[in-house]
Every structure is written in C-alpha cells, then in structure tokens.
C-alpha cells in the first residue's frame, strides 16, 4: 500500500542564500511548505520584529507555501554548559514565541508552531523542565532530536526523529519511531552512508524509506515529513530530486 506523505523542505542547508531567496527556491522546486532556519541572520527571533514577521508570512502566502516549523540548531552542548545554558534557553523561548506568531500569521495553525532542537543528553533535567514550561506558556511545541529521547512531563516537549541521527546512534529507526509514538512531533527525511549524511536513496545510503513512512503512519503521524539535507553535497539538486512529483513538474513558484 502506498503511503501518502506531505514533505516540507528544511531551509538550513541554504543558509548562505538570503532568506527570501531560499523560500522562493523551495516553492520553485515544488514543495508545499518550508521549515525555516531560525539561526539564519535574517530570521532570528531577536532581530525579526513584528512588521518583518508579517512581511515573511505574506511572502509564504503569496507563494502558497505552508509553514511546517522552525529549526533551531544551536550547539547541543550549550544546554549542558553553565556558561551557555541560560542563553540557550532564552533563545529557545524567543523562538517558541515567534513560531506561534508566524503559524498564526501564515494561517498554518498550531501544528506549525514547532521548534526543532537537539538538547545534549548531558544537560541537567532542570533544563528540559524549563523548556517544557516555556513551550506550554508559548502555545508552541519543542521537538527534541536527542538520542536517546528524554522523558518529559510536558505535553509540548516532544520527540523529533532524524533518521540519520538515529542510525548514527546505532538504533533501529522503526523501533525509535514506535517508541516515540504519540510524542512524535517532528519526523525528518534524512539518510546515512559510510561517508556521513547523504541524500535519501543515493548509492550506499541506508534508509528504508517505505518502511519508515509506513511506521510513521502506524503511530498516527500526520504532520509534514521534513526533507533535511544538512551536510549533503549539492543540496539544491538533492532537494529537486526529492520534491513532490505532482508539484515539481507544474512550474509553480518563483525562481
């Protein structure tokens, strides 16, 4: 049975482009939604004021692109280091608020108000507790991609699954998805080969994509799957090959 999966393009691999150009690229390639890079100089919560957020939402609406969430890939160790932990938590707090506001402005609704992070498993439990409380207060969700996942008492502190990261940790991907279950708030499409992170389906890559997407269906995951091409050579060409076929040939979008 074919599993129908909506895919969103993560824009982190295109951070050398102006933010608007990266968004337009996703549209031109045929994606229906994007996952913004909240560490991009033009998209940081602290510098993107209310007017700029409205302008950003207008660009997404004009291109008929949904918002699937925000990636906040700050160094995981910062959550565990006394010199950086407060600052890291503060950045997450600001980004959660921005995610909620952008989701509302874009009309994407609460499911789009997701901030992906990777919290060092060595971080004190109080850090995760504080992040969970901040997520609840903001009305947005955290997707922590750490392996193994951290137990959380907060509904809005959920699990993110990055197949390449799971495989790097020596875990079975399907087992990781099943264990996450209803706590899964962000699932990614990534792959791993002997050379490191790779384009899904490329020679030597290990991901059983059909099996993965079937397992996502089993646990009831209904959000977009995030095409994550961090560290993949020629990311634009890879993104084009992974774009939804029904839109990639339609000529929609702006270059």
Task: Write a brief caption for the model.
This protein has 255 residues and is of the alpha/beta class.
> Helix/strand-derived class?
alpha/beta
- CATH architecture, please? Alpha-Beta Barrel
CATH-level-4 superfamily name: Divalent-metal-dependent TIM barrel enzymes
CATH topology: TIM Barrel
β-strand amount:
15-25%
Number of helices: 9
Q: What number is the mean pLDDT?
A: 94
Number of domains: 1
Q: Unreliable segments (pLDDT under 50, ≥5 consecutive)?
A: 248-255
Shape: globular
CATH class, anyone? Alpha Beta
Rg: 17 Å
Strand order of the largest sheet: 1-2-3-4-5-6-7-10
Task: Name the helix and strand elements from N-terminus to C-terminus, one letter apiece.
Answer: EHEHEHEHEEHHEEEHEHH
- What is the makeup of the main sheet? 8 strands, parallel, barrel
Distance between the termini: 35 Å
Characteristics:
9 helices; alpha/beta; disordered C terminus; 38% helix; eight-stranded parallel beta barrel; TIM Barrel; 255 residues
SSE layout and pairing:
Blueprint: E1 7-10, H1 19-29, E2 33-37, H2 50-62, E3 66-71, H3 85-106, E4 114-117, H4 125-138, E5 141-144, E6 157-161, H5 163-168, H6 173-180, E7 184-189, E8 191-193, E9 196-198, H7 209-218, E10 225-227, H8 235-242, H9 245-248
Parallel strand pairs: 1-2, 1-10, 2-3, 3-4, 4-5, 5-6, 6-7, 7-10
Antiparallel strand pairs: 8-9
Helix pairs in contact: 2-3, 3-4, 6-7
Explain this structure.
The chain has 255 residues and is α/β, with parallel strands linked by helices. The chain has one domain: Divalent-metal-dependent TIM barrel enzymes (TIM Barrel, Alpha-Beta Barrel), CATH 3.20.20.150. Helices cover 38% and strands 17% of the residues. It has helices at 19-29, 50-62, 85-106, 125-138, 163-168, 173-180, 209-218, 235-242, 245-248; strands at 7-10, 33-37, 66-71, 114-117, 141-144, 157-161, 184-189, 191-193, 196-198, 225-227. α2 crosses α3. The termini are far apart. 46% of the residues are buried. The model is unreliable at 248-255 (pLDDT under 50).
